[in-house]
Design brief:
The protein has twelve helices and no strands. The chain is mainly α. The protein has two domains: 52 residues, Homeodomain-like (Arc Repressor Mutant, subunit A, Orthogonal Bundle); 165 residues. Helix 8 packs across helix 10. The C terminus is likely disordered.
Length: 227
C-alpha cells in the first residue's frame, strides 16, 4: 500500500474530524460509536484506527482543531482594540464576538458535551488561563487604557476579561438557548447598556453619591448629640 503524503493525511483527518463533530454534537460522546463516525466520514473502521487510537483520542483531536480555529477568531476580535475600555471599541468587539458565536454554534455544543461527559477535561485548560492569555494578547494596551481618566484600581485584565465574557454569554443565550432578546431589548441596545454599566457603573459619581449620604449621617448624629 503506497505511503500517503502529509497533505493527504491532513485532508483525511480533517474529513474524519468534521464527520465526528457532526455526530458528536448530535448524539453526544457516549451516544456515538466509532462505526457511526466512520460511516459518516465514508471510511472503514480500520482506516479510521490508522489515524486515531480510539474514540476519546478522536474527540480530543476535534476539540483541538476547533480550538485552533477559535483562537484565531479571538485574536481577530482583539486585534483592533487599542483603548480597551473605550465604548466605541467595545461595541465593535461585541459585533465581532456576535459573529463568532453565531457562526460557530457547534464549538459551544462541543464544549457543553465536554462539561457533561468529561467534566470539562478538554476545555478547562483554555479557561484556566483565559485572563492571562488575554493580557498577553493586549500587552501594554491594557495598562495604557487605565491611564486615561479616573481608574477604579480593579485589575485591568480581570475587568476586560469580564467584559469579553459578558458579550460571549449574552450572544450564547441568544443563539443556543433561544433567548430572543432575553434582556428585553434589541442586541444593539443591550450591548450599549452593558457597556455603559461595565464602564461607568450604576452611579455617575460614586464618591458624591455615597459621600453625601455619609455627610448626612454625620450631620444628623451631630444634631442629636447637641440636642
Amino acid at each position: 500500500m503506497p505511503r500517503l503524503s502529509r497533505a493527504r493525511v491532513a485532508e483525511n483527518q480533517e474529513a474524519i474530524e468534521g464527520a465526528a463533530l457532526r455526530v458528536f454534537t448530535r448524539q453526544g460522546y457516549h451516544g456515538t460509536t466509532v462505526r457511526e463516525i466512520a460511516d459518516a466520514a465514508g471510511v472503514s473502521m480500520g482506516n479510521l484506527y490508522n489515524y486515531y487510537a480510539g474514540k476519546e483520542e478522536l474527540f480530543a483531536a476535534v476539540v483541538h482543531r476547533y480550538e485552533t480555529k477559535m483562537e484565531a477568531l479571538r485574536r481577530r476580535a482583539l486585534a483592533k482594540v487599542e483603548n480597551c475600555f473605550d465604548p466605541e471599541q467595545l461595541t465593535r468587539m461585541a459585533e465581532v464576538i456576535r459573529d463568532i458565536v453565531y457562526k460557530n454554534p457547534d464549538y459551544w455544543r462541543l464544549m457543553y458535551i465536554d462539561v457533561i461527559e468529561f467534566g470539562s477535561k478538554h476545555f478547562a485548560p483554555e479557561f484556566r488561563s483565559l485572563a492571562r492569555n488575554i493580557e498577553k494578547r493586549l500587552g501594554s494596551k491594557l495598562k495604557a487604557s487605565t491611564q486615561r481618566g479616573s481608574w477604579t484600581g480593579i485589575d485591568p485584565a480581570l475587568a476586560f476579561t469580564s467584559i469579553y465574557l459578558q458579550f460571549v454569554t449574552y450572544f450564547l443565550v441568544e443563539k443556543l438557548f433561544g433567548g430572543k432578546q432575553h434582556l428585553g431589548m434589541t442586541d444593539d441596545r443591550a450591548v450599549a447598556q452593558l457597556i455603559k454599566l461595565m464602564t461607568e457603573g450604576l452611579w455617575h459619581d460614586r464618591h458624591t453619591q455615597f459621600g453625601a449620604k455619609e455627610s448626612d449621617r454625620h450631620e444628623a448624629k451631630t444634631q442629636c448629640t447637641s440636642a
